[in-house]
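Hello forum,

I keep getting stuck at the same step: I have a sequence, I want structure tokens, and every attempt I make locally crashes halfway through. Rather than fight my setup again tonight, could one of you with a working pipeline run this one for me? It's a single chain of 160 residues.
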Amino acid sequence: MHPSWPEEFSLWYEKHLPPKAGGGLNDWLLIAARRLRREIEDRDLVKEILGPISESCGRLKPVEINRQVDTAFDTVPTDTGPKFHPNDVALQNHVLSTHPHLSLQGLCDLSPWHPESRKPATELIIDSLFPGNPFLCAGWSKYQFATQTREQWRGKLARI
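Reply #2:
Ran it on my machine without issues. Output:
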């Protein structure tokens, strides 16, 4: 730990010490660079912080540090906050109370297909999702597939 390191990074570093060279150091450097990027906008400063850490692990290759820091700065961060909006129970209750069909039973009642019928509803569902005669791509596997119009697929999709 170093006194000039950002506090959040210092706390993370204490729990995630870097591996020795050959043990995943490059992956660790990328994760560390992404963590530092949250608090430091200057990529050269991040490289200065990571250089001595890399050297203490038995390896100092500036090209590797540069590559990982550049990747961290040039990619869009994926962990920048919550993935979903917070749960608003009051809003949910309001919507459900003003729209009684928004229950499982209500949605089932609105559906043109009913699960208890036990008959395949592939054609009905495809027609509902893709009205008209659009091109559809369907396949048996990721290597065996075809693209045809809806009418060309009619009667065949339940077998895929």
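The chain has two domains: 7-74, 111-160. If your local run keeps crashing, start a new thread with the error log.
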